[in-house]
Amino acid sequence: MMVSDKNGWLKVLIADDDPIIRLILKKAVGEVPYTQIVGEAENGAQLINLAKELTPDVIFIDVEMPRLNGVEASKKIFSLNPDTFLVFATAYDKYAYDAFHVYAFDYILKPFKVDRIRQTMERIRKLKLQRSASQQLDRLLENLNNERQKISIKSNDSLTYIDIHDIILVTRNNRKTIIVTGDGNIETSETLKDLYGRLKSDKLFRCHRAYIINKTLVKEIVPYGYKTYLVRLAGTKETALMTVEKAREFKS
To answer: What is the CATH number assigned to the segment(s) 150-251?
Structure first.
């Protein structure tokens, strides 16, 4: 069965040194919709290795296991992926404080009840879906902000605000920095280095000590002299230079 995060499926890893308990947990978890058991561990060291390899959403952990107990193993797992839901499943209530100290999501005592496990898994699933929706919204807002990101340019005695994504290229000429956009050129005394430090966009690329280009507008890169390329861009007759080293970086 394929596991799809978009559909709310949960990958589950079970860790207990007792094979009978693992079997009981497998049956109980297996009755919960939207779950897939991806592995089993019989000790703490094996659990950590499987957690790295399988990247489960949920881990059911016994406390008293050989080689490394459940609490210590959980600390390492949490440091690897703090989004993992850790559910302690044990016969001892005395470890509850230690479990929640490592951000356990739940603490279930043996003997297990299917309804109790089902409730825990459903809570996890709902929370994971909320997380996913929140992350998608954050990415959308970030993209919108990037699309509308403007930068102020000091030109003579005035400030000009331009959309970063309207920039075609930036170059230096006669001790002035020239910003070429679709609406015309803007001159500023700000250095190319300082300006590039303010241009927070993955679309802009410093291809030469004297040039910054918009990567999405590159039409052609052709050899031009020793260890140098000529770059032609859409939206302007202006050209830029690119070093061999930067050409390799641009290619990759």
So the answer is: 2.40.50.1020
